Amino acid sequence: MTGFEHLKSALPANSWTDDQDLIAPWLKEWRDKYFGQTPLMVMPGSTEETAKVVKICREHELKIMPQGGNTGLVGGNTPQGEILLSTRRINKIRNTNPVTNAMIVEAGATLLSVQEAAKKADRKFPLSLASEGSCTIGGNLSTNAGGVHVLKYGTAKDLVFGVEAVLPNGEIYNGLTDLRKDNTGYDLSRLFLGAEGTLGIITAASLKLFPRPGHVQRAIAGVKSADDAVKLLDYCRTGNALSMFEVIPRIGLELVTRHIPDQRDPFEQVHEWYAIIDWETDDSALGQSVAEQCLMSAAKARVVDDAVIAQTEIQAANLLALREHMSAAQKHNGASIKQDITVPIDKIPEFLRQADKAVMKIVANCRPVAFGHFGDGNIHYNIAQPEDADRKEFLTYWNDISCVVFDIVDSLGGSISAEHGIGIMKKGELAQRTEPAKMMMLRTIKQSLDPDNIMNPRVMI
Ligand SMILES: Cc1cc2nc3c(=O)[nH]c(=O)nc-3n(C[C@H](O)[C@H](O)[C@H](O)COP(=O)(O)OP(=O)(O)OC[C@H]3O[C@@H](n4cnc5c(N)ncnc54)[C@H](O)[C@@H]3O)c2cc1C
Fold this sequence. Notes:
By secondary structure, the protein is of the alpha+beta class. It has 4 domains: 3-86, Uridine Diphospho-n-acetylenolpyruvylglucosamine Reductase, domain 2 (2-Layer Sandwich), CATH 3.30.43.10; 93-211, Uridine Diphospho-n-acetylenolpyruvylglucosamine Reductase, domain 3 (2-Layer Sandwich), CATH 3.30.465.10; 215-327, Alpha-Beta Plaits (2-Layer Sandwich), CATH 3.30.70; 334-420, Alpha-Beta Plaits (2-Layer Sandwich). The chain is 34% helix and 20% strand. The strands form 5 sheets. Strands 5-6-10-8-9 form a 5-stranded antiparallel sheet. A 4-stranded mixed sheet has the order 1-2-4-3. Strands 13-14-12-15 form a 4-stranded antiparallel sheet, sandwiched between helices. Helix 1 (3-10) runs antiparallel to helix 3 and helix 12 packs antiparallel against helix 14 (398-411). The two termini are 32 Å apart. It binds flavin-adenine dinucleotide.
């Protein structure tokens, strides 16, 4: 029996398909950058079924690529011949415990369904990304996703007590604790966080829950420069209230209002940059007063030119939509060379000055669209093609542009991957730019847990 026949005969009929029409949607990723192929997609319905798949694959030397919501942006979710293992059927909320503030969820649950389950228990699960309706908690942990609340709550890594995972030999590791203290050796669950499926398949996770704030106050501020945007961040910090600080440039706002229906500029005047800000407070009166105080003192110091404080939930949602539609709006703007980088927050303006100059040198008239999570130092530094350029020809500059951008990031003490991971896209850069001791440790861990290299073998290292 071949490995494929073995898998098909060992699994229930609804746990696999080789129908290429059914598989097709899962072979291309969101940005249309990577296109894949697989002979078989397996969709186990439980941890035990996942373990069975892995054992059979190991026996027959078949490689596996795990996939959750397929919203990853670095090519680590697009198979090239590996068995595609979808976690989407392993999606239950197993248990919510408001006393320990812990919730055990299965890996294929969407982030949105996890947030909603937390809300039902009068708690908050703070991870929040524009892709939350599709991405899964397993994918979030495997990519160590960031999103808009990192400045207050941290990345996915900070929001988890432990995971359950199927190891590359088919054994099940159970780290589903809700202990806040456990000093019994290496923190093995953390190995799987940000591992991009290279060390095993996360099948469930014990997540940290937080008190739900009484009110989230949102505002948008117009500022003259990236320097002022960074200065404004400091004016907005008050106690522990600040929970979001996202920035978009004028060109970004124009793209969203031009290409996405029902989006409008909240200001009459044009501003060079916009910050969209949230504060979590006990109630709306306090929220209004905190927002007013922060923005007034920034205005007095001439850091803010104008601001709008949301008065209703609809107004608040409309403001955030301007930021959330940035990626979709750029699809209408020709080809884009995209980088997800991070630098120390106070170096953001310097990064932008150096990077804009360097990329213009490579492609004259290209249009940098830098936006994102300025509150935690993460910039989505996307370079749109010049208006009249040939799309294909522009994309041939991807490596040259990445190289100069990453050189600047390195010189400023930043990271070439802030929140999207390494995948296929940055694998070469990781190997080149990482200190030898770290590369040695990454390879040693991979080799010892997955000696046959069956788990996501083309990704990261
Ligand atoms: C519009 C849009 C907005 C986005 N915004 C953000 C953002 O603000 N912040 C951010 O961090 N990311 C963002 N992303 C990227 C993406 O949503 C995240 O990387 C997300 O965490 C991926 O989850 P997924 O379930 O879709 O994973 P997939 O895309 O399916 O997989 C991603 C990687 O994780 C591995 N993997 C998936 N599930 C498992 C599992 N159970 N066990 C082991 N490995 C697994 C895959 O093999 C792959 O390497 C955005 C994407 C889009 C399209």
